[in-house]
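README, section 4: Worked example with a bound small molecule

Sections 1 through 3 covered apo chains. Here we extend the same pipeline to holo records, where the ligand is supplied as SMILES alongside the sequence. The molecule in this example is zinc ion. Nothing else about the input changes; the structure line simply encodes the ligand pose together with the chain.
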Amino acid sequence: MTMIVLALDALDTALVEHYDIETYRLDGWTQMETVAHQFEHPFTPEAWATVATGLHPTEHGVTEGGTSSWDNPVIDFASQFVGHLDVHTRAKLGNLITAATGEEYTVGTTDAPTMFDPKYAVVHNWPGVADGDELRKCWQITDGDPPKEQFERELLGMGAQQFGWAREMTNHPIALAGVHVHTVDMASHAYGDQEAELRRLYEWAAERVAEIREALGPDDHLLVLSDHGSYTSFLDPGEVPGKHAFRAFASTTHPDGPPESVYDVKEWIEERVDTGAVRESELDLPTEQLKDLGYID
Ligand SMILES: [Zn+2]
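The generated complex, written as structure tokens:
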């Protein structure tokens, strides 16, 4: 049995309901309790590190490193005065701040034990845990004020690779596979005031979830999680579109139903993964032949 965990950044419980996309709900769903420490709203690397460790940010330590033009408190402050900042304005402000402060896009990594440490688990990228570089690259898609077509080409190209990795993992003898996908978060920042455009990208990601569900074996399970939601002009008048909301989402195909809190995910998974799923046999490389050919000594 393989458990696939899709970390769909910013998938918003209220928007899943508003757009009425059944695919995300799997066989049971809930609005999950989430965490905010560094700012007054949930912050991506901080929340995903809590999901993976079950620990508060002060305990897992992913609180300092990690900033972006979207998650920058200075921009959030500016947004209160100029109202809604569109994707281009926000990206430009982010670039200005980066230039002025020399603040780099970096994502810290926890030293605490995570649910991906055991041999039965694999993880593709997960902010605060494994390869924060993919998140950094995703944040940078809006640097340099790209045309809409380029924004979507790069964003969905990256998302398709991450979903594709998860689907491939259903073919391998492992107990747990987790991947973080930032597509919905970036879409929510760019289209937080465009109901139809945001729906289109919510539906794009839902189709990828459906493909993974179809690839599951009879004993496999899927867990979909988000770290927070995202305000929109059409659901949340008076809020800054794209600002992170406390509307994290969780759903699963598992009959026990999803975890209720970001603090419970690690334990929820560890109680349900099939640790006997992992198989290891020797990889029989043709070393003699490679030596003869002079590729190795
Ligand atoms: Zn996030």
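What to look for in the output: The chain has one domain: 3-278. The pocket of zinc ion is lined by residues 9-10, 44, 185, 227-228 (CB under 6 Å).

Section 5 describes how to batch many such records.
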